Amino acid sequence: MLEQALIPAAAAASRRLMVVLHGLGDSMEGYHWLPDALALPAVSYLLVNAPDPYFDGYSWYDFSGDAGTGIERSRALLFELLDAQRAQGYPTEETVLFGFSQGSLMTVDVGLRYPHRFAGLVGISGYVHEPERLLAALSPRAFEQHLLLTHGTRDPLIPFAAVREQVNLLKAAGLHIQWHEFVKDHTIAGELELEVVRDFVRARC
Q1: Is 76 buried (19+), middle (13-18) or exposed (0-12) by CB count in 10 A?
Q2: What pLDDT digit, counting tens, does each position of 77-107 carry?
Q3: In this structure, is residue 96 part of a structural domain?
Q4: Element spanning 196, H or E
Q5: Which tens digits make up the pLDDT trace of 132-182?
Q6: Where in the sequence is the domain holding 103, given as residue range(s)?
Q7: What's the number of domains the chain is made of?
Q8: Domain of 180: which CATH number?
Q9: Residue 184 lies in a domain
């Protein structure tokens, strides 16, 4: 079971949820600022720690070794977590899956394989693991999913051009993707990018 922390919505009766997946070496502690920054009072936030220790934080998979095995393991754990949220009264149709870097990869991988439709999928500064294999393993609901993917033109860790090519491949397959480019490094570009995320969530959830 993945370690997690729920930050309830200000509107107590709301069933809207954002599941937040951090990047390599980070943890859920690094995203306690997000609810206030997005200012979406009807949304609860489930902050989640990846399963593997990595220095002072955690990792979703071993990027320097057999990434596929770790991704498959984390995918199964996230499926279990999402199933548990459904059982606790948070419908997937009102749930946004949000991820940064490694968390973005997991958002795309899980979101397009999970058998239920999400309110939306948000991936920031990530990439797609083996996109051709992913396209061959899409869930029946994948073409109903709506994705917001963003990336920095100056990202020194995950090259911009390669990610844009992956996204174009997914779009050509018929997936619904909003793609936004920012002049930024491997980070979230402050209010400029948060406004794009906020507008996407408001429109979908």
Answers
A1: exposed
A2: 999 999 999 999 999 999 999 999 999 999 9
A3: yes
A4: helix 190-204
A5: 999 999 999 999 999 999 999 999 999 999 999 999 999 999 999 999 999
A6: 18-204
A7: 1
A8: 3.40.50.1820
A9: yes
